[in-house]
UniProtKB/TrEMBL annotation, chain A:
SUPFAM superfamilies: Periplasmic binding protein-like II. InterPro entries: Bact_solute-bd_prot1. It comes from Paenibacillus tritici. Residues 1-27 form the signal peptide. The keyword Signal applies. Keywords: Signal. PROSITE patterns: PROKAR_LIPOPROTEIN (PS51257). This is Extracellular solute-binding protein. Gene3D superfamilies: Periplasmic binding protein-like II.
TrEMBL record, chain B:
Belongs to the binding-protein-dependent transport system permease family. The chain crosses the membrane at residues 14-36, 86-105, 117-136, 148-166, 187-209, 267-288. It comes from Paenibacillus tritici. It comes from the Bacteria. This is Carbohydrate ABC transporter permease. PANTHER family: ABC TRANSPORTER PERMEASE PROTEIN MG189-RELATED-RELATED, POLYGALACTURONAN_RHAMNOGALACTURONAN TRANSPORT SYSTEM PERMEASE PROTEIN YTCP. Pfam families: BPD_transp_1. The keyword Hydrolase does not apply. It is a multi-pass membrane protein. InterPro entries: MetI-like (IPR000515), MetI-like_sf (IPR035906). Keywords: Cell membrane, Membrane, Transmembrane, Transmembrane helix, Transport.
From TrEMBL, chain C:
It is found in: Cell membrane. This is Sugar ABC transporter permease. The keyword Transmembrane helix applies. The keyword Membrane applies. The chain crosses the membrane at residues 39-62, 102-123, 144-167, 187-215, 236-258, 294-319. Keywords: Cell membrane, Membrane, Transmembrane, Transmembrane helix, Transport. PANTHER family: BLL4140 PROTEIN. It is a multi-pass membrane protein. Its main location: membrane. Residues 98-315 form the ABC transmembrane type-1 domain.
Length: 559, 303, 328
């Protein structure tokens, strides 16, 4: 027995050794390939001189969020390679961003292209882009013309990152509303005679009446899980007529937190009453995100406050179950006297997009590539796809998709071979409409929206005399120049950041406590909560926000 | 041990075995259920799963979850890397751990305490992310397959387990070999190593599972090289992309609807991924179980 | 002293011990080195490798006394003395997270050890080989589930709306109405403990099953001839046979008393139980890594190491005095 055991062990060891050698060889070979192969071709690409350079080159990209890795033979990537010679080595974030950035910055190991990140800007990982744009990128210059000052970094005035979202042209269309609201099931509205609630009282009245008839339903739902705390934390700012500025409300260009103010107390007191009446889901603050979605998908939740995208997966499940009457319509509830500001115009996502790293082989080539990509022809390819394959064109020139094409677009397996959504999310892009009047992408094309509408939905819309879900909300007002305040950068480890984090902790802990308390105890819990907030260095946080707001007003007002 | 009461001897085993069997069936139920549920969810339609109520059997059969997992061509190569690193780590790890444990188990060995202490301390400290990164970088192990093998070659925990086992072996076994003039290495390889099969199997399992499941080394040291990606890492990448697809508010600002709509939900994807990554390694244990036989080796040596 | 390392259940010749007693006899001399050159060759290179991969990066501990920013080279970092430690210890939640961490690790340690040994003993009694292997292979399945899936199953089981735990307890009339287990801090540690047992018991058993195999079967035969019963054999043969492994694992795990993990607590905890669910690791992630403060994470790591090493040394010493197997 020993003999055979030994022999096989030796044989295995030999095999393993061979495998090790083979893999080591392959590993070190790879090591050089990223740098070596490319720099050779990169050298050829003498800047500017030869017009459009199409020599093959591979750029490495790091994206600071997870995303879909396209297949190697992806249709769009192939087209890009054919026409520009450029291919990509994409790395999407897996795991924790802070850890990844830590080692990346410490080691100075940057790829050619980096997605925008404040930590990387602080670490001077990007090259300034404004001269490159002026020289080589007329289309980008035009694209960002109106927001040129807004895309400059706040600290030193250079442009390091080209924002991927928030630059509009033409008309802004928004048939499906993704933002915040107080939601009610369509079936509930139908049964109650199509009411339009405007205040908290009216809203909860509807829930109470409906629940009386259908006691098995859950009255009002909420969520307080992980980073998804906005269903619990944000309502006061919307009820009081403020746009979504995060943890502060801004009046007359002065920001202050609202967690401890009366506008919050009124709302949570109301929820406390609701809870006492048995209308609040008892498990609302114990559940995780999956359980929350499961409740929405079960069709048992009458209403909740949330941002639409956050529970969309649950609605999708309802649609696939054919339970359209359990899907939702949002309402912009307000405190008496407040003016509605639920919908907002997307602001330019400063420092969110792509930048070029200091290690980049050929910055000119990269900026020229993006410049080409922002042209309408390429944008149509990137957003709609290939004509005749992914979308069709009407006699009047408007784009549409066949049911089959629409169905394709939902298959993960199709997406990875035919779209590059992951990377495109970070690229400069056209939003709104093209010069021929078509919407930037299929999701915002009005006709596309109507075609996908089921008869039941049409009936509901008709009853309310509306054409789309977003019409339940007022047209967005012009953004304040500094909007949104939540994108103001808090320095790592600063008192402001610490205060914000601790404030958030207190809200996570005390708001559920206050709501679940018996009505008699509410005052006590609330007082305790407010006292604890006032022990924090809230001033440091508010000061930093106001400083940021003033800086933006000063710099961004100049167009 | 001596005082024995006779009489109840025939009933007791029956009662005991009945209860023991019932208890084991309970253990099996409780531990098997989550896996069966995961399996059922992995074959169930993603949107349908959200509504809950999937326990042991899929309601709306689909292969879309698995299709989504296998669509990216990269996972075959990643699986190859995973298998390779697991086999290599296990073979070298087991051999080196046993050899070192043997040396440290020798009571007369002069450095046994010092080296033992060095190893034990490693269990309780961690230099931190960035210093470790610099070490790996300076050793040229970034984007190198050996980064999966070298840093975790011998773990203190396994070493101690192995040392404890070797210390427990009867010393008479090596005594005669010593008298015959056999060297330490020879004694280790010819006598001790074959005697250790149960603990070898245990340590092999620990190393194999650890190596198979690890993704952090890929994340930190080899993430930009797709040729070195491992199965676990590719799976995390895919899960991340599904989870982000519907949940990036910045992409939705202003009603822009560019986000990837997907039929596969995070929960269904996670289940399919769990099955794909866990099933291969699950087969290792039953395979190793034949080495967990009481007294097999001790008995054979004595004869 | 060192003969304590030799397991007592196996009779061994005493000759070796009298010839070379490490505490007294062997000195560091060329002669010793020469006679032990094979042992040295078998161990020192591996030890050197260990020093490179584990001890060289330890310079990083200096970061705990800095305000480390990765973008700046090490020489130009700002030195802040003990500021990071002060932040750590002066935070009013630190004592709370310390308490939670120790409580949960302690529960995990006790429950984990007892259940693993118990299951190993019972598995060992199964005569049907196939059944035994099947139970073994199945019981360790949950070890391979990710924490997210495990936490999902735990919270579904504990739900008031048809969760299996409430259903069973109601059926048994142990409770009148469903309990919201996850909403109350007083249940939290127990839930974590039970979840860990469920997830890891099969895995934890492996090591004891391996230890049981090292027991000389002739001991059982002899005991059977003497008429020893099942529980007596367990008590007097099996348990002593795995005692060395048990003691070693215990000492090692005592050193991990500040590692209660954070994933499960993070996933199962919520605002209502936060005073019981936060662990040191969560604290460090929140105020350290998430804010780019690598120095704080390092300081916390040093604190944990010091506590661990002290505890391990104490445990080891106790074991030594009791004449048990020990780590060092």
């Amino acid at each position: 027995m020993h003999k055979t055991a030994k022999r096989s062990a030796k044989a295995a060891a030999a095999g393993v050794l061979a495998l090790t050698l083979a893999l080591t060889g392959c590993g070190s070979g790879n090591n050089t390939n990223t740098g070596g192969k490319n720099s050779a071709t990169g050298g050829n690409a003498s800047p500017a001189a030869a017009g459009d350079d199409t020599a093959p080159v591979t750029f490495s990209i790091f994206m600071n969020g997870p995303g879909q890795q396209p297949t190697p033979d992806n249709k769009i990537l192939k087209q890009i390679k054919d026409k520009t010679g450029i291919s990509f080595n994409m790395e999407f974030l897996v795991g924790d961003l802070q850890q990844k950035l830590g080692v990346m910055i410490a080691g100075g190991d940057y790829p050619d292209i980096l997605s925008g990140d404040d930590k990387l800007i602080n670490a001077k990982a990007y090259i300034p882009l404004e001269d490159l744009i002026e020289k080589y990128a007329p289309n980008l210059k035009k694209h960002y013309g109106d927001v040129w000052n807004q895309i400059k970094d706040e600290s030193d005035g250079h442009i390091y990152v080209l924002p991927s979202y928030g630059v509009y042209q033409g008309k802004i269309t928004e048939p499906t509303y993704q933002g915040p609201g107080f939601w009610l099931q369509k079936g509930v509205l139908e049964e109650m005679g199509y009411p339009t609630p405007k205040t908290l009282d009216e809203y909860f009245d509807i829930i109470a009446k409906y629940k009386e008839k259908h006691p098995e339903m859950i009255g009002f739902e909420s969520l307080n899980f992980d980073w998804r705390v906005f269903p619990l934390q944000n309502p006061p700012e919307h009820l009081s007529g403020h746009p979504n500025d995060g943890a502060v409300v801004v009046d007359n260009n002065v920001a202050q937190i609202f967690a401890d103010k009366d506008m919050s107390k009124t709302y949570y007191k109301k929820l406390n009453d609701i809870n006492a009446q048995g209308l609040m889901d008892k498990e609302a603050f114990v559940q995780n995100y999956d359980q929350y979605l499961a409740k929405v998908a079960s069709g048992k939740v009458i209403g909740m406050f949330d941002q639409h995208w956050n529970f969309q997966d649950g609605e999708k499940s309802l649609i696939s179950q054919g339970k359209l009457e359990n899907t939702y319509i949002g309402f912009p509830l307000l405190y008496p006297g407040a003016e509605e500001w639920y919908r907002d115009r997307g602001a330019v996502g400063t420092n969110r997009g792509f930048g070029i790293s200091i290690n980049a082989k050929d910055p000119v080539r990269i900026i020229k590539f993006w410049d080409k990509m922002i042209t309408e022809d390429w944008q149509k390819t990137l957003q709609w796809g290939v004509k005749g394959e992914d979308y069709e064109v009407n006699a009047d020139g408007s784009f549409y998709r066949t049911p089959e094409q629409r169905n394709n677009a939902e298959q993960t397996s199709w997406q990875v071979a035919n779209k590059i959504s992951g990377m495109f999310g970070y690229m400069p892009k056209i939003q709104g409409t093209y010069s021929d009047g078509n919407a930037a992408d299929a999701g915002t094309q009005p006709q596309e929206f109507f075609d996908s509408l089921k008869p039941y939905d049409q009936k509901i819309l008709k009853a309310y005399n509306k054409k789309s879900w977003s019409e339940f909300f007022k047209e967005p007002k012009e953004n304040n120049i500094y909007f949104p305040a939540y994108s103001i950068v808090l320095k790592d480890g600063s008192p402001a950041q610490l205060a914000q984090s601790k404030l958030n902790d207190l809200m996570i802990k005390y708001l559920p406590k206050a709501i679940m308390a018996s009505p008699a105890e509410f005052e006590g819990v609330w007082q305790d909560y407010v006292d604890r907030i006032h022990k924090l260095d809230i001033k440091a946080y508010e000061d930093r926000m106001n400083e940021g707001i003033q800086q933006r007003i000063e710099k961004w007002s100049v167009k | 041990m001596k005082a024995v009461t006779k009489g109840s001897g025939r009933i007791e085993p029956v009662v005991f075995h009945t209860f023991n069997t019932i208890f084991m069936l309970f253990v099996v139920t409780v531990t098997l259920y989550p896996f069966l549920q995961t399996l059922a969810v992995s074959f169930n339609d993603g949107s349908d799963t959200l509504a809950g109520g999937i326990y042991l059997w899929p309601r709306e059969w689909t292969l879309e979850n698995y299709r989504a997992v296998f669509i990216s061509g990269t996972i075959y190569h990643a699986a190859f890397i995973s298998v390779s690193r697991t086999i290599i780590s296990t073979v070298f790890g087991v051999f080196l751990t046993t050899m070192l444990a043997y040396a440290l188990a020798q009571p007369q060995y002069i450095f046994r305490k010092k080296i033992g202490l060095l190893f034990i301390l490693t269990m309780y400290f961690n230099a931190g992310l960035i210093p470790n990164y610099f070490l790996i970088k300076n050793m040229g192990l970034l984007h190198n397959f050996m980064v999966y093998i070298l840093p975790s070659l011998v773990s203190a925990f396994n070493l101690i387990i192995m040392r404890t086992y070797i210390r427990g072996l009867p010393f008479s076994l090596t005594e005669s070999a010593k008298i015959d003039g056999a060297g330490e290495f020879r004694i280790f390889w010819k006598i001790i190593f074959p005697l250790c099969t149960p603990v070898l199997a245990t340590v092999a399992l620990f190393i194999a599972v650890g190596s198979w499941n690890s993704w952090f080394d890929t994340f930190l040291y080899a993430s930009s090289d797709i040729k070195l990606s491992t199965l676990q890492y590719e799976m995390m990448k895919m899960l991340g992309s599904i989870m982000s697809a519907n949940n990036d508010p910045s992409m939705l600002a202003g009603g822009q609807n560019n986000q990837v709509q997907s039929l596969v939900t995070p929960a269904s994807m996670r289940s399919a991924i769990t099955i794909v990554t866990a099933v291969p390694i699950l087969f290792v244990y039953p395979f190793l179980q034949k080495y967990f036989v009481v007294g097999l080796n001790l008995g054979s040596v004595k004869e | 002293m060192s003969d304590a390392v030799l397991d007592k259940q196996v009779k061994k010749p005493k000759t070796r011990k009298s010839k070379i007693d490490p505490e007294i006899g062997v000195e560091l001399s060329w002669k010793t080195l020469k006679t032990q050159k094979q042992l040295i060759f078998m161990s020192v290179p591996i030890a050197l490798y260990l020093i490179i991969f584990n001890y060289v990066p330890i310079w990083g501990w200096l970061m705990a006394f800095q305000n480390y920013r990765p973008a700046v080279s090490f020489g130009q970092q700002e030195w802040v003395g003990l500021q990071q430690f002060k932040f750590l210890f002066s935070d009013d939640t630190f004592l709370l997270v310390l308490r939670n961490t120790i409580a949960m690790s302690f529960i995990n340690l006790v429950l984990g050890t007892v259940t693993a040994i118990g299951l190993a003993l019972l598995l060992n009694e199964i005569k049907l080989k196939f059944f035994k292997r099947a139970v073994q292979s199945i019981s360790y399945l949950p070890h391979f589930l990710s924490m997210v899936i495990a936490a999902g199953i735990v919270s579904t089981s504990l739900s008031i709306d048809g969760g299996i735990v409430n259903v069973v307890l109601m059926k048994l009339h142990l409770i009148q109405e469903p309990i919201m287990w996850l909403s109350e801090g007083k249940y939290f540690w127990g839930i974590i403990g039970a979840s860990n047992v469920w997830k890891e018991v099969g895995w934890g058993t492996i090591i004891y099953l391996a230890a049981i195999t090292s027991i000389d079967p002739s001991l059982y035969e002899a005991a059977s001839i003497d008429g020893a019963k099942r529980f007596q054999k367990m008590r007097y043969i099996t348990l002593p046979g795995i005692k060395a492994t048990f003691v070693i694992l215990l000492i090692m795990n005592i050193g991990h008393i500040l590692d209660a993990g954070f994933e499960l607590q993070y996933l199962l905890g919520n605002g209502l139980t936060v005073d019981y669910s936060q662990t040191i690791d969560i604290f460090v992630v929140k105020y350290g890594l998430a804010m780019g403060n690598y120095s704080l994470a390092t300081a916390a790591g040093i604190f944990k190491t010091i506590v661990s090493v002290i505890l391990v040394l104490i445990a080891n010493n106790v074991a030594k005095r009791l004449g048990e197997e020990r780590l060092l």
